[in-house]
Amino acid sequence: MTTEESRETVLGFLAAQGRGDAEAMRRLTADDLRWEPPGSVFAPVQGREAVFEAMAKAGAENFDLSTMEVEVDGIVAEGDKVVLLQRMKCRTTRGTDYSNVYCWVYTCADGRVVRMQEFTDSQRFRDLVIG
Predict the structure, then answer these.
(1) What is the CATH number of the domain that holds 76?
(2) Nearest-CA neighbor of 62 among 32, 38, 83?
(3) Entry pTM
(4) What is the pLDDT of residues 87-116, one digit of tens each?
(5) CA torsion sign, 82 to 23 to 59 to 39?
């Protein structure tokens, strides 16, 4: 894939995710999608449906999703890789305020996201979310 194709694929996926459009998210991800969250918090998940289920479960168990605000600070794309820097803040399901910085590395192939690597301050996540 070209850099522009990869960038557009990821932006399309993020837009679909933001509006809760599961069908568009499925079209823009590979069957064997892999999510690699911070290893000290969650284990990697393989397979589109398993990834979507694990991410939804983690979100609902840990955050008051109605309070979630995400701000994109930058996007860099090169070839099949797209790197996204974002800030997220919300309330946790424990009732505490949460904010953190995330770096996502998306790998694309054949017009779809095939791998999502998530990097964040996992100790901050543990302290504020898990307790």
Answers:
(1) 3.10.450.50
(2) 38
(3) 0.92
(4) 999 999 999 999 999 999 999 999 999 999
(5) negative
